[in-house]
Amino acid sequence: MEITLSVHGMTCDHCEKAVKGAIEELNGIQGVEVSVNTNKVTVIYDDVYVSKQQIESAIEEQGYDVVVN
Ligand code: 9UX
Questions:
Q1: Which Pfam families does this one have (predicted)?
Q2: Taking residues 10-16, what's their average pLDDT?
């Protein structure tokens, strides 16, 4: 599975690393791409081990907003 989420509130490199690190801690994550410039977070994952909802929660727990398109 691959999803791209719009995430608001990331403004520096540190934010980028916080979001990337939080997602990578989940099971079943195969790739994470975070761009502060475009506010996009792309995640490649195996949905047997992790859900879109869990990925969104991990981002929100770091204090960022996942925007519903
Ligand atoms: Mo940078 Mo991000 O100082 O929440 S870590 S803005």
A1: HMA
A2: 96
